[in-house]
Write a structure and sequence with these properties.
The complex is a heterodimer of chains A (840) and B (224). Chain A is of the alpha/beta class. Chain A is 43% helix and 17% strand. Residues 707-712 and 815-840 of chain A have low confidence and may be disordered. Chain B has helices spanning 33-39, 48-61, 83-96, 113-119, and strands at 2-5, 8-12, 18-20, 23-26, 67-70, 100-104, 122-124, 128-130, 133-135, 156-159, 164-169, 175-184, 187-189, 200-201, 209-214, 217-221. The longest helix of chain B is centred in the first third of the chain and has 14 residues, at 48-61. Chain B is globular. The chains are: A alpha/beta (840), B alpha/beta (224).
């Protein structure tokens, strides 16, 4: 086998020797660099140092005995489990070890799961959810007794999420059962390595800690596919299908290509477009996204591995996953929104040491060229995004308190020790712990929960007595929560995938929509399934899936601001930015290009209405915060009815009548005092909190998520999370889970810290105000966002083309415009000192 | 709100009740629902049951009626029957004085008939025919077969079970589910009277009427 002939890299040797010296460790390497071997040969090597006597081995049916469970390999994706098992098994076989290796995920049959609990294998590949479930059984104390090493793969994927918290808690639990256990993590390069390390090993590890970095950098070729002429008036959501022929050329030249898009809809559209342009590719291209039936996805993945496909159009569903050796090129359509994500995706091609990964970028609108250039520079300077952190979420702790009580009775001090040994809960206040334990035993608010019981407290020990409660809890373990999805199935039986319930509810008989690369006609909805048949013609409905609007990362946003500054200053720019020069010239001529220390505000007051645009260049979530805050505070003072439109670059406030405000007052409206209060008031916070509470209620076990088929007898236990939220608000308003929900809204959804930082930066900057007569290259995409909500997809495209043409005319005939007396007067105004308010 | 329905003079209330002469109709109280959740390990605070009973008590006091008819699902489930529920319910009954308490049994009341009878309830299995009116818990397919009903004893049906609500737009982007009376040509579906029950969005047809229960008011929603 080829890999066996390789001499190990220095950093791999470092990892093995650190493991041999009983260090915890974190391995930082990009995919395809041999990090699996780096992490795995440590635990295997340990066997030669200290094998276990055969008397301790596990007896197995029809197989020779094997050592008891010594190593766990935690993988965030169950789709990865198969592939990982093969790679790990190869090492075991290569060293001729008597180890047995098995996987345990949600897909494992219940018979196998039961057998694994009775006689566990020597090594197990497992997901965080399956691990927690295993830890909930009383025999887990026995199962994990000999455990020597836990490896957490793709740690960066879990970091900063509730799954990561769940993993931290599981590690703490395992460490208690097997005190000498070593913790190893494998992660892609991220901005905050420190945090990745401490959340892996905890705040006070009892052993030395090693960080191993692969010194090689993956060779990466980044290329931007530029159109022959750039739209002077870019608009977000323009999916760049104009670049179809270039993309086809690229695909043709490569062996096998992954085409990444940012939304599931774009995936379907690109697939259709490719197929229409190249009918000969039928059967050799495929589509892959998270809403497709698992069988279809597995089929596509296998076909890539087997080299049967020339191209797969996909979303982040293929960001991670099995090695796709045949893939030698990645095409990214639209902004990757972050540097780490771009590297991750590029790394899906040329997936082995020494090979080059290739990524071609297809901008979906002109500004994305700047984004890619910023990402390119960030990669060169090794500036990768930080992963967010989560602050001691109580819902996860509530779940954990019940899980641990299922396995063995525990005392409060024992639980506290264990929980505080995790990074996430290292500073957990006593009163929060008390509340969590009260909440699972008495409900936490005495008069309100008289008949409640879940965990029993007896003689200072917490345990679960009720078998039905135990069973229900085990069914609900985990923190992955999904929106209500509804299955799509052929009348003849085959399953295609899922659409959101709200989309399904709007479908009428005969509606046609794309899913899984097929045009489907809706027949009827019955038994919670959308029944369809194949259709011909064009789609009449577009499925909506949530999660299409990821904000630009703050690191990348900063890069964009720098590049715009560079353009504004007239310094020479990289060739890819040259292609934007015409567009930028126009922005400069009609308005202004902000320097790094400037904030640009534009106002366009014409017969369509009054629009104010503020460009923060801070990513979509900050734009949303600024927009909500401005609109709220302005309408408090002036009783205007404002509508808001946002994108990654800025925000537009629009009013059909002239707004009675001075542009120069805008900075005052962004005062940081009372920010949280106003922003919550402005955003209909109850609604946001209620929505946020959905996940919290599920994780904390406040609702019974019935399993299909079994649910009938449980029907009297069904309540929507909305109802639970309302009941708590009304009868237990001090419930800490409600506070958690509103904290999460502020921190995660509104990214309040990022918003504050942005406002602080802008307050310190120089504000530049411009009155404009027509939409500028900066404002045009915002205007499109604003009208998008009001008109259907088809007519929107027509209307935008019309407006683009008008503006195009204005752009090429500057003389004609200045000949117009009113316009030249405005033009004269524009030349005023930028610091002055240009309003009359 | 007064409503003339197939010759019956009815008074509809935003609380979800209907009065016909001296009889008050309500449906789907789901008393003890929080207890059922609590006993199953789900931490839902109590309070809704008491609030529902207080609301009912107040409404009974405000009008002169001689009988209360619950169109099913007075209780949520048998395991929700506790001493405290029993005392709250009998307190409500005592304070209302000499009323006749009738239950048209619903699917959720199934295993609680004995307890209710002990408290003085008259529990009957649907359908109950009373004059030209029929009472049910679960609506049946009556409206689809209305032409064949000419020779029946009753000409309309009151029922519950559905917890009807109607989805109305709040603003350009949001909608709200509002509990409502669903008035069909020969039946009326009452909204759930209980304070902590879900609702089910109905899809009325052209000849139906929808009366929304909004913050103490009844508003007719014009169907196009």
């Amino acid at each position: 086998m080829e890999s066996k002939k390789q001499t190990p890299f220095d950093w791999q040797l470092q990892a093995w020797s650190a493991h041999a010296s009983a260090h915890h460790g974190l391995i930082l390497a990009s995919t395809g660099m041999g990090k699996t071997k780096a992490a795995w040969l440590g635990p295997l090597g340990n066997w030669f140092e200290s094998p276990l006597p055969e008397s301790l081995w596990t007896q197995r049916k029809r197989q020779s005995p094997a050592p008891p469970l010594l190593a766990l390999w935690i993988t965030p994706l169950r789709a990865l489990a198969n592939d990982t098992c093969l790679a790990l098994q190869e090492c075991i076989d290569g060293l001729n070890l008597p180890w047995s290796l098995e996987q345990r995920t949600g897909d494992t049959s219940s018979a196998t799961k039961l057998r694994q609990r009775q006689s566990p294998p020597t090594a197990m590949v497992i997901t965080p959810e399956s691990l927690t479930l295993l830890l909930s059984y009383p025999e887990s104390l026995e199962t994990f007794k000999h455990l020597r090493t836990v490896v957490v793969d793709e740690w960066h994927e879990l970091l900063g999420s509730k799954r990561g918290i769940q993993t931290e808690l599981a590690l703490a639990r395992l460490q208690r059962i097997a005190p000498n256990m070593l913790r190893w993590g494998v992660s892609a390069t991220i901005g905050n390595t420190e945090h990745a390390l401490s959340s892996l090993v905890g705040p006070a590890p009892l052993r030395p800690v090693s960080v191993i970095r692969s010194d090689q950098r993956r060779a990466m070729e980044l290329e931007i596919l530029l159109p022959k002429s750039i739209d002077r008036f870019p608009w977000a959501g323009h999916i760049g299908l104009a670049m179809l022929s270039n993309v086809i050329e690229k695909i043709d030249a490569a062996n096998s290509t992954l085409v990444f898009t940012n939304t599931r809809n774009q995936t379907e559209l690109w697939y259709q477009a490719l197929l229409r342009a190249r009918p000969d590719w039928a059967g050799r291209i495929a589509v892959h996204h998270g809403s497709l039936a698992p069988e279809l996805r597995t089929w596509v993945e296998q076909a890539i591995v087997d080299g049967k496909l020339v191209a797969v159009v996909c979303t982040s569903s293929l960001d991670l996953g099995v090695d796709f050796a045949p893939v030698d090129q990645v095409i990214q359509v639209g902004s990757p929104k972050g540097t780490a994500r771009l590297i991750q995706r590029a790394g899906r091609s040329g997936h082995s040491p020494g090979r080059t990964s290739k990524l071609a970028f297809v901008p979906s609108h002109a500004f994305e060229i700047i984004e890619l250039q910023a990402a390119r520079e960030a990669i060169e300077n090794q500036q990768i995004e930080q992963r967010g952190t989560l602050d001691a979420p109580l819902d996860c702790l509530v779940q954990h308190a019940v899980t641990v009580a299922l396995s063995a009775p525990y005392s409060k001090s024992q639980f506290l020790d264990e929980v505080r040994s995790t990074w996430a809960y290292r500073n957990l206040p006593d009163e929060h712990l008390d509340w969590v334990l009260d909440f699972v035993t008495t409900g936490g608010c005495l008069h309100a929960y008289q008949d409640f019981h879940r965990v029993t407290l007896e003689f200072g020990k917490y345990s679960v007595r009720d078998v039905a409660i135990a069973r229900r809890h085990r069914m609900a373990i985990g923190t992955i929560t999904s929106d209500m999805m509804i299955q799509v199935q052929y009348m003849s039986g085959g399953k295609i995938g899922f659409v959101e319930e709200s989309f399904a509810a709007k479908l009428k008989k005969g509606d046609k929509f794309l899913l899984g690369g097929k045009l489907l006609e809706m027949e009827w909805i019955r038994e919670g399934t959308v029944w369809v048949r194949k259709a011909k013609g064009d789609p009449t409905a577009v499925p909506r899936w949530l999660g299409g609007n990821m904000p630009l990362s703050s690191e990348l946003a900063e890069g964009v601001r720098r590049l715009i500054d560079q353009i504004a200053s007239g310094q020479p720019v990289s060739p890819s930015l040259e292609s934007l020069s015409e567009l930028m010239q126009l922005q400069k001529r009609w308005s202004h290009i902000p320097r790094l220390d400037e904030v640009l505000v534009e106002r366009c007051n014409n017969r369509d209405g009054d629009s104010i645009m503020l460009y923060a260049f801070e990513g979509r979530s900050v734009s949303e915060g600024i927009g909500a805050l401005l609109a709220y505070r302005i309408s408090q003072a002036h009783r205007n009815t404002l509508s808001i439109a946002v994108n990654d670059y800025g925000v537009m406030l629009y009013c059909a009548e002239p707004m009675n405000i001075e542009l120069a007052n805008i900075p005052q409206y962004l005062d940081l005092a009372n920010l949280e209060v106003d922003i919550l008031a402005s955003l209909n916070a109850t609604e946001l909190t209620r929505r946020r509470f959905r996940d919290i209620a599920r994780i904390a076990g406040l609702i019974h998520s019935g399993t299909p088929g079994k649910s009938k007898s449980m029907r009297h236990l069904q309540a929507s999370t909305t109802m639970v939220f309302d009941a708590l608000k009304q009868y237990d308003a001090q419930n800490l889970l409600l506070w958690q929900a509103s904290d999460e809204v502020l921190a995660d959804q509104l990214q309040i810290q990022r918003l504050k930082g942005a406002i602080r930066r802008m307050q310190a900057n120089r504000w530049v105000y411009r009155l404009v007569d027509q939409w500028t290259p900066f404002s045009f995409p915002l205007m499109v966002e604003r009208i998008r909500d009001r008109i259907g997809n088809e007519s929107l495209a027509d209307r935008i083309r019309k407006m683009q043409n008008q503006l195009e005319k204005a752009a090429v005939e500057p003389e004609a415009i200045s000949a117009n007396p009113t316009r030249s007067k405005r033009a004269a105004q524009r030349k005023l000192n930028p610091d002055e308010n240009t309003e009359a | 709100m007064k409503l003339e329905h197939r010759g019956h003079a009815l008074e509809l209330y935003a609380s979800g009740a209907i009065r016909s002469d001296t009889t008050l109709f309500v449906a789907d109280l789901h008393l003890g629902k929080e207890t059922v959740f609590q006993k199953s390990g789900l931490a839902i605070p109590s309070g809704a049951t008491q609030a529902t009973l207080q609301r009912l008590q107040k409404q009974i006091h405000e009008m002169e009626i001689t009988r209360l008819v619950v169109l099913g699902d007075l209780l949520h489930a048998a395991i929700g029957w506790t001493e405290s529920l029993e005392s709250m319910l009998s307190e409500t009954m005592q304070s209302a004085g000499g009323l006749r308490w009738e239950l048209v049994a619903g699917n959720h009341d199934r295993r609680s008939h004995q307890q209710l009878r002990r408290l003085g309830w008259i529990v009957q299995e649907p359908p109950v025919i009373d004059g030209k009116m029929r009472w049910l818990h679960e609506p049946d397919a009556i409206d689809t077969a209305s032409s064949t009903q000419e020779n029946r004893a009753f000409n309309t049906t009151l029922c519950g079970h559905l917890h009807p609500s109607y989805i109305v737009p709040v603003d350009a982007k949001r909608t709200a589910k509002v509990p409502c009376f669903w008035i069909r040509p020969d039946s009326i579906v009452l909204p759930a009277y209980g304070g902590w029950v879900g609702t089910h969005a109905i899809q009325p047809s052209r000849q139906d009427r929808v009366l929304l229960c909004v913050e103490g008011d009844l508003i007719e929603w014009k169907l196009h």
